Amino acid sequence: MKRPITKVALLLSLTLAHTLALAQTTTAKLTTAFQKFEADPQMQNGIASLYVIDAKTGQVVFDRNSRLGLAPASTMKIITSISAYELLGKDYRYETKFALRKTGDNASLLIQPSGDPTFGSWRWSLTKEGNVLKGITQALQRTGIKSVGEVVVSNEGWNEETVPDGWMWQDIANYYGAGPAKLNWRENQYDVILRSGKQIGDPVSIVKTVPNLNGYTLRSELTSAAAGTGDNAYIYFPVGTSAAAIRGTIPVNESSFKISGALPSGANQFVSMLADTLRTLGIGMPHQAVLQHNGSPQQGYTLFHTVTSPPMDSVVYWFNRKSVNLYGEALVKTIAYNSAGTSDTRKGLEQIRQHWKTQGIAESELAMVDGSGLSPLNRVTTHAQVRLLQHARQQNWYPGFYASLPQFNGMKMKSGTIRGAKGFTGYHKAKDGREYVFAFVVNNYNGSASALVKKMYHVLDELK
User: Fold this and answer.
1) What single-letter DSSP state applies at residue 139?
2) How far apart are the C-alpha atoms of 58 and 429, rounded to whole Å?
């Protein structure tokens, strides 16, 4: 005997049919839009990968080359962010400790950093350099010390290579190429103020640096270019020297044109600025620190001050919102250090791959050489990116991660740009209420990135 179809069953079947119809419509629209995109002259020698799933059901809405490893540029940052939440925790905080060993009126200062990339950053009130220096000097004054004869920075377990494999020479002396040490300062960044000439081809002079640099100098090889040409100045810091060259162009008739560079040593810059601050209070201290790599001395030292970083939510927020490469590299090194006692980037990336392997993501889909995506050697699949984004939606730290994603084209997504690579990956809720998780990466395109982005947006608009 046939059983009658209940109202509930009928409603469920109609709902499922409606959902499938919507999915088929979206799939068809994406297929048409993506075929047009692939046929565009900008993609004549390029390749693109797009993977879209229904956020609630996990159903695949569109898949083109999702298992193909491509250079993800800064969309790599979503992998590092999510992995940091998983392996370090949303409440993780860095600590930088200060201890003294007294000998009469003199003392030895021991700094015990932990790789904090926010130490001295201008992005939070508590981390701003003025507030950090004030807190340390006040704590030091309370000890009664009148002179510091030696400054030791504990660098144990942290290698000296701040730059990961695969970064380009043109990048590493500029602010976005600042790598993390165990002791970072002001995001290992400084500003250069430049003055150009009145005529095209005139030399450009260096007005000043902010802050004053400790231990190395700059020289300008820049020339003046046509008005409106923008910032085409790059800093080059040759290995084994203490002088960097600035090459390229800036526009004519600029009296205070600012570019930013990467500090070779955040530790030396910090110690120098702390010494200058203490001098105004009548406390002498060396401008250079001694890096102690093995067996940092602990005996006889007394802790007198600790600087604590903002929590992971805050670090990830600025990491993704402003695409701060330093933060990503610091997080990878921290993952390595906390698990293996070494800051080797390769160890941290291996920890990340092993973690996601337990979640069913093949190691070959996460062929990473850095944590920020600045290296063109990275190869990541859009399938892996979407799987991580979908995993994040189920976690208690998801609100913080979601808030960290910028908004482009009316969609919450992380963008990525390096030469020849462009990507967008994130979430979107359509007008009909459906929610999508997507990753869209393009490599080896022709022409301008801005023109390509408009065409990528046209494809993603089909999710709206």
Assistant:
1) H
2) 14
Which of 190, 192, 195, 204 lies closest to 248, judged by CA? 204
**Confidence check: pLDDT of 8 > 60:** no
Average confidence (pLDDT) over 307-328:
98
**The two three-digit tokens of residue 251, written as one number:** 């526009």
80 neighbors 330 (Cβ within 8 angstroms): no
Indicate the angle between helix axes 7-38 and 449-460, nearest 10 degrees.
Answer: 160
The whole-number average pLDDT for the span 441-458 is: 97
Q: What is the Cα–Cα distance from 264 to 244, expressed in whole angstroms?
A: 10
Are 190 and 263 in contact by the 8 Å Cβ rule? The answer is yes
> Helix/strand/coil (H, E, C) string of 211-278?
CCCCCCEEEECCEEECCCCCCEEEEECCCCCCEEEEEEEEECCCCCEEEEEECCCHHHHHHHHHHHHH
Q: Single out the residue of 82, 1, 159, 35 nearest to residue 371, CA to CA.
A: 82
Q: Distance (Å, rounded) from C-alpha 160 to C-alpha 404?
A: 30
Asked whether 318 and 126 are in contact (CB, 8 A), the reply is no
Q: How confident is the model at residue 40 (pLDDT cuts 50, 70, 90)?
A: very high
Question: 87 by DSSP, 3-state: which?
Answer: helix
The residues facing 414 across adjacent strands are: 425
Place of tokens 């997080």: 331
**The whole model's pTM is what?**
0.92
Q: Is the pLDDT at 20 greater than 80, yes or no? A: no
Q: Are 177 and 372 in contact (CB under 8 A)?
A: no
Contacts of 290 (CB under 8 A, 6+ apart): 150, 151, 152, 153
Q: Are 112 and 412 within 8 A, CB to CB?
A: no
